[in-house]
Amino acid sequence: MISLFDLFKIGIGPSSSHTVGPMRAARRFIAHLNPTFPVARLRVTLYGSLAWTASGHATDKAVILGLAGEAPESVNPDAADDIVHQIGIDRRLFVHGHPVAFDPTCDIVLDRETIPPIHPNTLQFEALASDGTVLDTARFCSVGGGFIVPEDATKQASYAQPDMPLDFTSGTELLDRTCQSGLTVAGVVLANESALRPQTEIAAYLDLIIETMMACVERGLVQHGTLPGRIKVRRRAAALHERLMERARLNQRPPHEAMDWVSLFAIAVNEENAAGSRVVTAPTNGAAGVIPAVLRYYRDFCPDASRAGMHDFLLTAAAVGGLFKLNASISGAEVGCQGEVGVASSMAAAGLAAALGATPLQIENAAEIGMEHHLGMTCDPVAGLVQIPCIERNAFGAVKAINAASLAMHGDGAHHVSLDQVIRTMAETGRDMNHRYKETALGGLAVNFPEC
Ligand code: SF4
Q: Any idea where the Serine dehydratase-like alpha subunit domain is (predicted)?
């Protein structure tokens, strides 16, 4: 089982694999750099998908921040641009207290020719002496959701945690654990997490995730203006919010009112993500709006919603997200958007069903439905920005999640396609997908939408 502490991470936008992961990799390279080496210059090479969408996904900004010692969970999003700007002017940064030359315009190399051998999101760091000798180097793969793995360890990477009392690696095993223990899906996850840390710490982390998600929604609801990037996408959450409030004041309440709010919550979060603000990776940044939107729907629209229900929601969602991470991928560069918005929708469907009191079988069914209707969804961000189609797509992922939970709860849990089968199908579909549809911005909407 992958811990919820790994699946839900606090970071900054716009991308978990292209921003959060590279920032962590850069920071790790610097932290492990021998302070006695006479480093005169640093060089970073981005390969594959990271090179194709570098500035659109803020990978360049992320590696600069990481080299400067910043971490995604603690960097001040409002100060980040100033830090990057200053390093660009000074053409140097400080490593272990010593100035080292670093000119982002030439020391961040975008290698779009070399095909990285292990993973499409690969980056390399080099510390150079004054004569150009390479003193130290490291290569990392950013494998989705902010997870990073040294390239040479990728194949052996294991996400299993030690001594989990009710460990599971498939949907079938998860259901078995609930039968054996008599626990809910959330109860199984909590039992495993409790083997790693005290329950008070787990509850505090769940509360932190909830508060960070809700704060992101609130912030997104009041921001105006345009998002970063050359297509100048106008933020629309604030205007949409005002319209919905006005409609409520006039007591004009269409039957689909709740869906309008769900879409609004998702759009608010993803506009914040696109702006590089503080978000929760859930399970990625591109898909960061789905789970907050459905969680907020549960909180604001479902009778008897409670804080305990929100905890069950997140614990259950983490179980499902972990299965996708373990057995397929949550990286758009590996499997397309089905691995991002599709997985988030599946997680949210399971989480909502759990919070509403579904049985383990119904929860497994909800997760399966949530993914089944995202199979084959490509990743084709216009101009390499996490904006079009990403922002609106989160609204659809959230609405589909609610529908999936509802459909599953109208049944008794019996269904034809299992969660494990749909996870396997998603992985195979992603493998067969042309690379132009996997976060390279070389196909789909990215080439058919006129940018000017
Ligand atoms: S299309 Fe989907 S996977 Fe691709 S960048 Fe947007 S949200 Fe991420």
A: 181-446
